[in-house]
Design brief:
It is built from 15 helices and 15 strands. The protein is α+β, with helices and mostly antiparallel strands and 388 residues long. Helix 4 runs antiparallel to helix 5, helix 11 packs antiparallel against helix 12 and helix 13 runs antiparallel to helix 14. The model has no long low-confidence stretch (mean pLDDT 84).
């Protein structure tokens, strides 16, 4: 007797940061709410009510201030320690309802169901109810025979919340065909903007077009990942359940300031924050980096930054040690900051990234590697909040 095929689900919290803040302010349900980045520079999360006012994600706070004040939008500074704790509770509840859970990000996780004989749509609705009852988290769930189809299903569950009641199942072939015809190529999980342009030149405009394409031909033209994506769209699992995207080849962290900064000490603090965040991301994907780029954006004229100094520093060998990168950023920042100049944005990018597993350090350079110390710092920051 053939083994029944597993069903995958993607559970995604709607406006996660906003939902976390609303847990302690139930009076803000159905009201416009936004969450701001560190130092309240940019908008990093907003409720549907705030979106309806024309406020957009990643907008600097000062640009949206007039709308925020006019409509009395409630603003919160980000609290990553709180969000991380709620994310753990969110995943713990999911684990009670399925075989296995694989967190994909702080606000979404994949679930795997195998051997379940009940109606999984009803089970998904029960999960939604429990998350709302226990944590006041509104979620949408997409179901499908593969992770890629679960991602597509989740997209429709979020887009049509009122008619789908937050759950969409693409296990039914006719429903799957309809959904894939509505999804443009750039919206497919794993297909980036540049790759989608090349597919469009091949006459492939929708997920359904890609579903029907010759995967062997596209595998030769692009990569084996393209073949896997096509097979996943056809309902054939090709991604391991716990498999994550390829490690990033460069890591970037940047932010616009709420008001221009001109003093070296303020800019140094901002760049140090970006450097710490980049190093945490670097360690999370078990990588090392050998170069760092620091950049600043001056004032803008007609939406164009006219002064954009930057500097790239090469390290003797790859590392993930935050203190080494902080020393480099301080050295580089002194070369690009001009006295009397004010800046609206700063950022850091790590390059020259290699896998930390099996890396052979240079015995002559002597760059210290302190994995135990870095792991301890990361654990403290996860428990008590970033920058602790």
């Amino acid at each position: 007797m053939a083994k029944p095929q597993a069903t995958y689900a993607l559970c995604d919290v709607n406006s996660f940061y906003v939902s976390c803040e609303r847990m302690f302010r139930p009076d803000l349900y159905a009201k416009p709410v936004i969450v701001l980045s560190n130092n309240d520079g940019c908008i990093i999360a907003l409720s549907d009510e705030a979106k309806s006012l024309g406020i957009q994600m990643a907008t600097p706070y000062f640009e949206a201030r007039s709308i925020i004040q006019r409509h009395k939008v409630t603003c919160f500074s980000s609290n990553y320690g709180l969000y991380g704790d709620i994310s753990k509770r969110f995943n713990w509840i999911l684990e009670q309802h399925c075989d296995q859970v694989a967190p994909y990000s702080v606000d979404e996780s994949f679930m795997r169901f195998e051997g379940f004989h009940d109606d999984l749509t009803q089970r998904a609705q029960a999960i939604r109810s429990e998350l709302w009852r226990s944590l006041s988290l509104p979620v949408c769930i997409g179901l499908g025979p593969t992770k890629t189809l679960a991602k597509v299903a989740n997209h429709f569950a979020k887009k049509h919340k009122s008619t789908t009641h937050g759950v969409v199942d693409l296990s039914i072939p006719k429903v799957r065909e309809w959904a894939l015809k509505q999804i443009a190529v750039p919206k497919i999980w794993g297909i980036g903007r540049q790759l989608s342009k090349k597919l469009i030149l091949q006459g492939i405009h929708t997920a359904w077009d890609l579903h029907n394409a010759d995967y062997k031909t596209l595998q030769r033209m692009f990569s084996v990942n393209m073949e896997r994506t096509i097979l996943e769209l056809r309902g054939q699992p090709c991604l391991k359940f716990s498999e994550l995207p390829e490690p990033k080849k460069s890591i970037l962290n940047s932010r616009s300031f709420g008001k221009p900064l001109s003093t070296y000490s303020d800019l140094k603090e901002a760049v140090a924050h970006h450097t710490s965040r980049c190093c945490e991301k670097l360690r999370n994907q078990s990588s090392l980096a050998s170069s760092i780029t620091i950049f600043l954006y001056g004032q803008r004229k007609e939406l164009v930054y006219y002064n954009r100094p930057s500097v790239t520093l090469q390290l003797p060998e790859p590392t993930d040690d935050t203190s080494i990168f902080l020393q480099a950023t301080e050295q580089g920042l002194r070369h690009i900051v001009k006295v009397g100049e004010s800046y609206k944005k700063a950022g850091v990018m790590l390059n020259g990234i290699v896998d930390s597993h099996g890396y052979q350090p240079d015995i002559f350079e002597g760059v210290p590697q302190r994995p135990e110390l870095m792991q301890s710092l990361d654990r403290i920051n996860r428990r008590y909040g970033q920058d602790t």
